[in-house]
Amino acid sequence: xxxxxxxxxxxxxxxxxxxxxxxxxxxxxxxxxxxxxxxxxxxxxxxxxxxxxxxxxxxxxxxxxxxxxxxxxxxxxxxxxxxxxxxxxxxxxxxxxxxxxxxxxxxxxxxxxxxxxxxxxxxxxxxxxxxxxxxxxxxxxxxxxxxxxxxxxxxxxxxxxxxxxxxxxxxxxxxxxxxxxxxxxxxxxxxxxxxxxxxxxxxxxxxxxxxxxxxxxxxxxxxxxxxxxxxxxxxxxxxxxxxxxxxxxxxxxxxxxxxxxxxxxxxxxxxxxxxxxxxxxxxxxxxxxxxxxxxxxxxxxxxxxxxxxxxxxxxxxxxxxxxxxxxxxxxxxxxxxxxxxxxxxxxxxxxxxxxxxxxxxxxxxxxxxxxxxxxxxxxxxxxxxxxxxxxxxxxxxxxxxxxxxxxxxxxxxxxxxxxxxxxxxxxxxxxxxxxxxxxxxxxxxxxxxxxxxxxxxxxxxxxxxxxx
Length: 468
What we know:
two-stranded antiparallel ribbon, 2% strand, 468 residues, two-stranded antiparallel sheet
């Protein structure tokens, strides 16, 4: 019922710009509101304590239900001519902040539908932050419980309490402040007010949707690329750090956090390598190397997916390197996708520990993150997560290949969707419209898997979950 209200701003945009699509959003609003009321009213007086088991179900249903109802405007708008599969794909891509699209000729679309796409990613980004900081640590998903003591919201027991609402409220303030700052910076850099607001939605959400087919490249502005790069970088950091900095009025938390340090070092190293590689291969690339190059690296590595020159047009080594960087993704507790930097750090440290054990079988080696001792159950959860992640990726890749898609397209499409990146290589470098319907459903499932940290969704498929 609350989600239905999100369709009204697009109706207002339609009225302001007189594009006659307001009726679609009003109809979608009415249907969503009515359906929600019918589900809610019979049990609206029920009260009870939510448990971790309920948390899994609610988390999955949040994206599943809102993704389906979010597709209604895409399906109803005649100008888009999207069938059910395409409408659902676009909606899930928006809410999961993946940024893959089946819509072409964006520049000719009504501003109301453009605004709606951007807004979907903005709401999805906020949901991701609350999920990552306040819910997943309590559910113990793939090592996320490491933040249970440090994040502003998680409690020490296994029940979801009203503190979750307090956490969400504080995070909303930070998220909204970043969005306003980003929109202002875009506007001062030369974007129209409409484009500035729309792109701020998808920059802070690390989503990647744009109001133009050429994405950020449409504006051909180094200033806009710098603004985008800065806010993508900020949004890729753990929002628990933003919360701590805001609450204590100190920024020391950023350089004390081991994950933030590794995140920034990886980006700095990737930018330096890519820009130097392009400098020595001038004939293979004719764009602005350092600013645009840094923008593209940050965009792909943080799983945003904005494009200025198209990373797929770079020399062969670089697109695949950046795609692998997207597998690592951004920091835990951010709006970014991927496996998360903290898991990569713990995998590395655990790997080094196993090598040391081979050398000294009787030695005792501990894994530490900064000055914090990492409990064995957390490293085990990370190993389990990464194993399931790899197996799931291979399974989805095999399924995609079975639909007749070529190897490069299949590999990059699955990688881009499961990491919530968006643009891939081959036939999905610009859009996903050319994929067959089965391949689109596989990609949609991958988006949901990636956004829900894989375990959260797969646990519902376990018979043990449903036993009393």
